[in-house]
Design a protein that fits this description.
The chain is an alpha+beta fold. It is built from five helices and nine strands. The protein is globular and about 45 Å long.
């Protein structure tokens, strides 16, 4: 079967070549696709309304990316600059400090049609490269929906939160939510 976002795929004995999805900054015109992928990928507990998605893109347009293939946007990553050990509670505002040391990955999702093709890792790799270029020392996230092994493969490790307030923020996420971090070597 050929999935919508495109890559090299064997179909029976024929090799079908399709362009790879490209990673680019998210634009306001992508938000309907982003909302649809989010609704497709997350438990209803985690869904954000259109106004929240739009406000975050307005405020942090240079740390939100999409993967686009021939069929359109099929994955996205929303991040912002933060401080190691700080967690955005579910539905909370992004607080970007004057002196960030960490890129916080808030939301990564890949459409069902494009799953398993490496688009999630490609978006994360792009974000890590940007963070390193900026001299940010860490990348961090809250792993939900059983995604811990996925993040471990990308170099993240479960990290204990010392601050009780941040542990409360972590508890706003449903189920087994794990704070994970990675130290970034400078380029
Ligand atoms: C977690 C997520 C971002 C991974 O993205 P991805 O681009 O599919 O990542 P990968 O290509 O590395 O595939 C991840 C695994 O999913 C498997 N997979 C999931 N659905 C698949 C499908 N339809 N076809 C093939 N493989 C699939 C792959 O086999 C792969 O496992 P492997 O590394 O052992 O081979 C994606 O599954 C997703 O959007 N999940 C829902 C939202 C979510 O939970 N986000 C993380 C919140 S912290």
């Amino acid at each position: 079967m050929i999935h919508g976002c495109g890559r090299l795929i064997w179909v029976s004995s024929d090799l079908v070549t399709r362009p790879s999805p490209s990673v680019r900054l998210m634009r306001p015109g992508d938000l309907a696709s982003v909302a649809a992928i989010q609704a497709d990928s997350y438990h209803p507990h985690y869904l954000e309304d259109d106004a929240t998605l739009r406000a975050r893109l307005n405020e942090f347009p240079d740390t939100a990316w999409v993967a686009q293939g021939p069929a359109g946007v099929c994955a996205y990553l929303v991040a912002y600059r933060s401080v190691l050990g700080k967690i955005t509670p579910l539905g909370g505002h992004f607080h970007s400090p004057a002196l960030p040391n960490c890129l916080y990955l808030h939301d990564l999702a890949v459409s069902t049609a494009a799953a398993g093709q490496g688009l999630g890792p490609a978006l994360v790799s792009h974000a890590l490269a940007v963070a390193r270029q900026e001299g940010l020392a860490y990348c961090a996230l809250v792993s939900v929906q059983g995604s811990q092994a996925f993040w471990q493969r990308l170099g993240f490790r479960a990290t204990t939160l010392d601050d009780p307030r941040e542990r409360q923020h972590l508890a706003t996420y449903l189920g087994a939510a794990v704070y994970m971090t990675q130290a970034l070597a400078a380029n």
